[in-house]
Recover the amino acids of this structure.
């Protein structure tokens, strides 16, 4: 578990408040901030342990991939493979409540936990002044899901954030009530046909008008691309055997705690460190082309999300 945060700082969107929030993000801490859609719970998207702490604070039972927030479209272009459709949508709707899913660029620097091991990234430039100033001052990509405990409704005021997460996060920057109040629209641009992955603040018809093409809708395409239903986020091609204390002949071992493996999620049994290493280590062991044995992980705190992901990885893909 995350070391308890003694108090949650309540920051105003003054120069001083923004600068404090930016330095907390730079230090790997969790900062909730207003966007025009809902309040986001932000962490440095390049820092795997900080991203793991988001899941811990929200009590998320599974690792859904997160949206990365940046200050400008130029910053987004460094992270993903940009194309003409992305350019047209960015010009029309950014800054604003639109998220685009695009293939990751080489050398993107984003922690694997952000994408839950997917080769694509959801990215957006939010429109609210607080979010824009904070992102500009921080100067890097910020991963941010909605700032509510898992299973609760999304917060549209700083008071909602505090009601759910006070004492579990480092700060909240109060930008007043969110103007849009529903989450951003998510458009998938990683495939040939653009897809509406989640309806939200920008109407699907407005996106279709800019792209001059219809969007495929959830339910009309294969499930793995639908947000929240990414059972197959990332499944290694090698067979995975759980609760292993030793590697059998031919296996590689993913260790945890006292079980030392070829790679070890956390030698000290720290679940935050383990979560931040999970996808990275699975990718690396998978590249060896041998079956993967995985040490037992306790089911407490972030362990539940780690075990959820490992169980999916261990399920044969044709099952
Ligand atoms: O308005 C918003 O989008 C808010 C504010 C804070 O920006 N954020 C938000 O994040 O709603 P969250 O984590 O509650 O929802 C993110 C959604 C999830 O449904 C997730 O599956 C989807 O984005 N998502 C993230 N990365 C994805 C990817 N690479 N491919 C497909 N879906 C993705
Ligand atoms: Mg949410």
């Amino acid at each position: 578990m995350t070391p308890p945060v003694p108090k949650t700082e309540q920051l105003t969107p003054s120069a001083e408040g923004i600068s404090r929030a930016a330095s907390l993000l730079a230090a790997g801490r969790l900062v909730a901030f207003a966007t025009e859609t809902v309040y986001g719970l932000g962490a440095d998207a390049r820092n795997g342990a900080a991203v793991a702490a988001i899941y811990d604070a929200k009590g998320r039972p599974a690792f859904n991939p997160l949206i990365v927030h940046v200050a400008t479209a130029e910053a987004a272009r460094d992270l993903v493979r940009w194309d003409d459709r992305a350019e047209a949508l960015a010009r029309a709707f950014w800054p604003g409540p639109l998220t685009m899913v695009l293939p990751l660029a080489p050398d993107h620097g984003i922690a694997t936990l952000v994408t839950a091991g997917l080769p694509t990234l959801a990215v957006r430039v939010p429109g609210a002044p607080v979010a824009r100033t904070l992102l500009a001052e921080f100067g890097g990509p910020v991963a941010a899901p909605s700032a509510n405990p898992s299973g609760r409704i999304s917060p549209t005021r700083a008071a909602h954030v505090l009601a759910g997460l006070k004492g579990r996060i480092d700060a909240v920057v109060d930008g007043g009530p969110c103007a849009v109040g529903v989450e951003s629209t998510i458009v998938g641009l990683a495939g040939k046909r653009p897809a509406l992955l989640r309806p939200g603040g920008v109407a699907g018809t407005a996106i279709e008008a800019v792209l001059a093409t219809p969007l495929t809708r959830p339910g009309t395409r294969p499930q793995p691309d639908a947000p929240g239903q990414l059972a197959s986020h990332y499944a290694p091609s090698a067979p995975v055997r759980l609760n292993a204390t030793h590697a059998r002949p031919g296996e590689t071992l993913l260790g945890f705690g006292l079980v030392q493996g070829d790679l070890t999620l956390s030698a000290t049994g720290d679940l935050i460190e383990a979560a931040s290493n999970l996808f990275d280590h699975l990718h690396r062991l998978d590249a060896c082309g041998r079956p993967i044995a995985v040490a037992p992980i306790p089911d407490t705190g972030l362990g539940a999300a780690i075990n959820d992901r490992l169980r999916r990885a261990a399920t044969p893909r044709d099952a």
User: Anything to note?
Assistant: The pocket of magnesium ion (ligand 2) is lined by residues 145-146, 154 (CB under 6 Å). Confidence is low (pLDDT under 50) at residues 220-233. Residues 45 and 143 are 5 Å apart (CA to CA). The chain has ten helices and 14 strands.
